[in-house]
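Complex 374.
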Amino acid sequence: MTTTDELYRPGLEGIIAGETAICTVEQGGLQYRGYDIAELAEQASFEECAYLLLLGELPTAAELLRFRNELNGFRALPGVVLDTVAAIPAGVPGMDVLRSTVSLVAHFDPITGDDRAARRARATRLLAVIPGLVAARLRLQAGQPLVEPEAGLSHAAQFWWQAFGRRPTELEERIINLTLILYAEHEFNASTFAARVCMSTLSDLYSATVAAIGTLKGPLHGGANEETAKLFQQFDSAEAAEQWVRGALARREKIMGFGHRVYREGDHRARILERFIEPLGREREATGHVAAYFAIKDAVWNAKRIHMNLDYPCGMVYLLLGLPLDVYTPLFVASRVSGWCAHAIEQVENNRLIRPRSRYIGPPKRKFVPLAQR
Ligand code: SDX
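Predicted structure with s-citryldethia Coenzyme A bound:
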């Protein structure tokens, strides 16, 4: 029965479900703790952004050095965790491997206590171990030896070093750093909200992160960047791509990498990342894929007036960088764990159990029927 004060929106669309000081997502701009994403993307390291999200201020040089040392101090993975990464059957999706191994890493938590300092330390540990888990899976799946973390590398370069056994070029490092910044935080998106719901029961940061990983896996959310790359690989001409889009839309299929629940005038992050596609496409001699990229984008706009979201250019950029498909969304996790932890800590420090109501649409009240009469 609907009462006058009921407020119901499918998917909680447009509903304010809480307050945050971490991020604003508006048609006019995206800010992390008041700093515009375009300035952070242009001038910051991912470590500075993660520090900003977790502690509320950009670090001084001394604070940044200490934070980087803390990250390095947490990068080593317990042997039994690495053995498990190796034992998980080939073909298990990288997001499922992360969901399991982040949960396993939690059992070897060296941090004691449950105050703000302990939570922030656990957040730093999660930031440190997740890229290492992704890189280890990549190496083990390829039958290659593990690469130990090396102090002195940036967070972006550290991933590349452990994943590919070589330091990234300047452009590779710059782009990985940029995608880590762009994916780091986005207000009450589905996976962040899952983390907040989990933390609102006074659970723990590892459990909140595992809940968020499971949520991000879905192609309507984080999994879209892998799907967009699969799309580009199908075409090496604009014409073929356009034809496919027309067919897909006629079948009322969703085109991965397009649309957004909040952004109706375009995703600020996507425009920032897109600038790298043409220079990278020329450098990697992939002009066919790049032509397909712009053809699909134009065809979707002409047919449905829908903007791309960050996953669309990201799928192209990671494809041009030669990253294996199965690390795209795990890299999203390596970045967004900073936002998840910031929100989880914010939630628990000003907590109210998150427990909405539902509108009942089932059978009316009825009498029990004994088994013999059914
Ligand atoms: C992320 O929330 C966040 O901030 C998320 C994120 C973050 O940083 O955390 O930004 C990351 O999740 C980006 C989104 C990645 N997912 C995709 O790219 C998957 C494809 N996109 C869609 O499934 C969809 O756009 C959503 C899920 C992203 C948003 O869906 P909504 O808000 O529920 O919108 P809708 O499905 O109700 O669509 C409204 C209309 C419909 O048309 P009609 O049926 O009314 O004619 O727009 C159409 C939809 O058919 N539409 C699309 C489309 N997205 C919307 N049509 C074709 N292709 C699409 N991608």
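The chain has 17 helices and three strands.
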